[in-house]
Amino acid sequence: MTFYHRLGEIPAKRHTTFYKPDGQLYYEQVMGTKGFSGIQSILYHHHAPTQVSSVKRFAEMKIEYVDREVLSHQHFLTFDLPAGGDPILGRQYVMGNDDLVVGVCRPTEKMNYFYRNSEGDELIFVHEGEGELQTIFGTLQYKPGDYLVIPIGTTYRIEPKGGVPRFLVIEAQNEIVSPKRYRNEHGQLLEHSPFCERDLRIPMKLETFIESGKYEVRVKQNQTLYSYFFDFHPFDVVGWDGYLFPYALSIHDFEPITGRLHQPPPVHQTFSGPNFVICSFVPRLYDYHPNAIPAPYFHSNVESDEVLYYVDKNFMSRKGVTEGSLTLHPMGIPHGPHPGKIEDSIGKRETKELAVMIDTFRPLQVTKQALAIEDIHYMSSWLPVEE
Length: 387
Hints:
1% helix; Jelly Rolls
């Protein structure tokens, strides 16, 4: 999200001397995207960020995909996956391609290290649980329904506060931004946008840690984790400013766009990435034409795969899905309402559904792990029910 923010202490001018109370210099770090042509922030450290005491290869994080035997719709019951691990190592990937990977996480262990994804931006949707996203830019509190957008290269740690959280995780290979059609030429969200900057929660307090010790930062690059060890706390930033920082947006603050007739999925778009979009289906009034059919028409995703993660309530066009269901409708074949759902929707006033949708413009592959939680009867669920 491109707007300016600053926290802590910074000098009056960039790239000028900035002294600690003891007369030593703070260390300036320019953190940006796309070389020096993307958005960036400038951070001021107590220690040089290059001051690494040791580094080692920690683990491979390669995802094992399976070849598709037939082109069919698929349904995965993510609540059947066991809880375990921490908010990073506990991630269980269900599908992905060269642009993004999609997984879920129900961590039972705390992070005793810090993490940095240097492959792309991350988006974490909080299905259940509360806690803190602690970052080098400051801390964000999270709660159910929050989207947490974490820019590439951000050092962070997730600390749940009571109970076992549940996350939907999207790891991109590039940036995740607001849809271009919602922004003016200066980057400000326009009046017709379903959310605005006022809805975003950004770090408002910067806590600086200056103690010494042994601290580990695990960095992901090329599907491999590397452990970097420092003799100082990685959150040693005294101040920063710029346009690059993490933020939170609640799905409950997404204001749906409705009309007299059925509105297509792009009106639900919330984020955009390289070759994919992310949409929010939220409680809303149905179409108000006297003869409207609120349920979506049958449609073919000829050039995109459609993924839906079901969060809460009944989804108006589906049968047999439940909380935590993850469906994949691949490009090339039509999909639409289940039998009876069109008729059931006529005359209805509103829906209470809550879901996250991901449309990719390159085919997705399913992981070997996902096959263990697949509802193998999903493709036949559109057949008429025999009386």
